[in-house]
Structures are given as C-alpha cells and as structure tokens.
Design goal:
The protein is mainly α. 77% of the residues lie in helices and 0% in strands.
C-alpha cells in the first residue's frame, strides 16, 4: 500500500499574500490623491486583488483547520491596514468622512482580539460569514467611491454628499454588525468535549 505524503499547510504563501495587502494600500494612497484616471484604475484593481487575497486566505484557513492566533491577527491587521490606507486617501480628497474612518478602523481592530478572547473561552470563531461580508462591503464602498471618477467627472459622487454619506453608513453598519457578531459568539456557552 502506497502512503500519501502529508500535505502541509501553505502557511508561508498565505503569510506573503497577507503581507502584500498593506503594500498595495500604501502604493494606492498617492495614486488616489493624484486623482488621475490611471491611478484610480490601479487603485480599483488593487482593491479587487485585496478582496481576492482575503477570499483565498480565508478559504485556505478554513480548509486546513482553525489556524493560530498569530496568523489570525496577522491576516486581520494586514487587511485593516489596507482598507485604512485606502479610506485615508479617500478622506484626504473629500470622498470619505473622517468620522466613518474612525468607526471602521476601530471595528477592524476589535475583531481579531475578540477571536482570541473567544478561543481562550473554548470557542473557535476565527472566520465567520460576517467577516467576509464586512471585507467585501468595504471593498465595494471603496470601489463605489472611486469608479465613477474613472468613468467621468459627471458620474463622480462628490457631486452628491448624500452618496458619500450613505456609502459611509453602509461601511459603518457592516463593521458594527461584524463586531456584534463576534461579540455574541464569545457569549455562547462553551461546548464540552
């Protein structure tokens, strides 16, 4: 009988993919601030790539087990830094309000620590659907603020402060719902083995 080799977790590749996101964010900041069509198109592509990276790292972690606290915090931090840098660039040019930026970033900081706290209480809430929903919504909000500027100034949301307001409220709503989801997961009673 032939034995199958152990398939190791692709942890080094996942870590590199996670580390790529903050660098993409830092590269996008001057491109967004410059407001050129090419720069904004690159930023939109970077947002899409960061979302794909999130889906790949999440799927791989779920497939290979619950992961460890270090990887969870690393992945969440890299994702938060990416979205934070994009939101900062959008805020600097008036396309995203500062109050929404602070709420979104505070929520992003809380989630990995709530996961670690849940694990200390005997639960495993590493990746819940609300986290993917939050990540996808942040990417969609950022793209919705950028894409009209690529298509033409007449479509740009800066003409309507209500568009910016409602997109900001959407980003805040999914951030708060994710924090609440993870907080409630901590409160669930421990399962006995």
């Amino acid at each position: 009988m032939r034995m199958q080799p152990d398939i190791k977790k692709p942890s080094a590749v996942l870590d590199l993919l996670s580390f790529l996101r903050p660098f993409l964010g830092f590269v996008c900041v001057p491109l967004i601030i410059g407001q050129t069509t090419q720069g904004l198109a690159f930023a939109a592509a970077a947002i899409a790539l960061a979302l794909i990276i999130h889906f790949v790292t999440t799927a791989s972690t779920q497939r290979h087990g619950k992961g460890d606290d270090f990887r969870l915090i690393l992945d969440s931090a890299c994702e938060s830094i990416f979205h934070f840098t994009i939101y900062i660039a959008l805020m600097l040019i008036g396309w995203f309000p500062i109050w929404a930026l602070f709420v979104c970033y505070a929520g992003d900081l809380l989630v990995p620590y709530l996961c670690v706290l849940a694990r200390q209480r005997g639960g495993n809430v590493v990746y819940r659907p609300s986290l993917t929903l939050r990540t996808a919504t942040h990417a969609l909000v950022q793209a919705a603020l950028i894409l009209p500027h690529i298509a033409g100034r007449s479509l740009a949301p800066e003409a309507s402060s209500s568009v910016i307001f409602w997109l900001s409220c959407l980003a805040i709503a999914v951030t708060i719902s994710t924090v609440l989801d993870y907080s409630l997961a901590i409160l669930k009673p421990r399962t006995k083995s």
